[in-house]
Amino acid sequence: MENTFKGNMFLENESDGHYFINFMLLKTFKNNAESVLEQINRSINGMNAQDKEQKKIIEKRQWVIKEINKFLENRNK
After folding, report:
1. Residue 23: which residues within 8 A CB-CB, separation 6 or more?
2. If both were cysteines, with which of 12, 16, 35, 62 could 22 make a disulfide (CB 3.0 to 4.6 Å apart)?
3. 54: enclosing H helix or E strand
4. What's the CA gap between 65 and 77, in Å, rounded?
5. What is the pLDDT of residues 25-51, one digit of tens each?
6. For 63, how many CA atoms within 13 A lie in the half-sphere containing its CB?
7. What is the rounded average pLDDT of the residues 10-15?
8. Residue 20 burial (CB count, 10 A)
9. What percent of the chain is predicted at pLDDT more than 70?
């Protein structure tokens, strides 16, 4: 099944070998990247990193923040 998706322009291979849908290619995201980043940052505030389930959510959101920051850096070059 993996081979079916490799040619998709929205599919990106992450450094860990897993693929993700690169939503940052969407025009809607490009126009609102800073706002999305702020909302994700706010959503982490108040979460409990000691709670096993919330910790997973925090880690994923931190990953998304890292990806958005990379996008913003590249966009400003």
Report:
1. 10, 29
2. 12
3. helix 52-75
4. 19
5. 888 898 999 999 999 999 999 899 999
6. 11
7. 79
8. 13
9. 90
